């Protein structure tokens, strides 16, 4: 299967952090595939790779990204690129296009910087979670991409000697920060579909025998809609927040995906995406966008070398992608 072969070629390049030589190499490889497919190729100011079949009454793109996080798996982003190209090449329909956005993992720089505007965008992606696996179904239709608020919380205490300061008079900033981590967990558990994560902790002065005097923790809070995101962010009192609004997917594209999945004789499961995607950036910019998820195996793990989707599920996803693109570009 050519899709799997191309995934292997990209994986051989190793980690591909955005706008590095490794990501450049992945784009060069994809550029060759685009040209072999007979696409009209351009690279925009943000470095996004766009391949089009000229003509048609409607321009419909499919694709994803080729950059990775450190220690990545082989499917995140790359599957959407190689399957998208395969679908466009097989259909050969004027108006179709394949796109590779730059630097998605660190904030969707490529899709934010893209100036071309298709009439619709459809992204195939692994789920990166266990919902489809638990439901024993290979494909899922994304309803919306969750919004998120990112920032930090700072806790001030009094540094002191770890051996001579009695426990009952300590002002330990790390203890306060630890209580906040548990608070964040409990708040998110109380809001349906919400999650909250503290992924970084900076402790000052940082000595093994010094009571922490200042602690800064990162906060990543996500929810499926604006109302729930408001409640989550307010409860966590995030400092200097950076907010990205939830992005509903196009009902037209969702209906086309459901019709194709039904044609394949598969159950229809709709779910939100807990991860951010280029599709969310385009949707926020007013471009009708949709996403098709492929089941993730190994417990749904992603951003990890154990990331896995089966060739059988990928083949079904490719069929659904081809059929949906055919409907959208008609």
Q: What is the gyration radius calculated from CA atoms?
A: 22 Å
> How many H/I helical runs?
10
Q: What is the chains' assembly state?
A: single chain
Distance between the termini: 27 Å
Query: What structural class should be given to the helix and strand makeup?
Result: alpha/beta
Query: How can the largest sheet be summarized?
Result: 9 strands, mixed
Total number of strands: 14
Bin the helical content: 25-40%
Helix and strand element order:
HHEEEHEHEHEEHEEEHEEHEHEH
| Low-pLDDT runs | none
Mean pLDDT: 97
Name the beta content range.
15-25%
Q: What form results from the Cα inertia axes?
A: elongated
Can you describe this structure?
With 330 residues, the protein is an alpha/beta fold. It contains ten helices and 14 strands. It has helices at 2-11, 21-36, 78-91, 109-113, 131-135, 173-189, 226-236, 251-263, 278-284, 311-329, and strands at 40-43, 49-52, 60-65, 96-101, 120-126, 139-145, 147-156, 195-197, 201-204, 214-223, 239-244, 247-248, 270-273, 289-294. The strands form two sheets. Strands 1, 2, 3, 4, 5, 6, 12, 13 and 14 form a nine-stranded mixed sheet that branches. Strands 7, 8, 9, 10 and 11 form a five-stranded antiparallel sheet that branches. The relative contact order is 0.19. The model has no long low-confidence stretch (mean pLDDT 97).
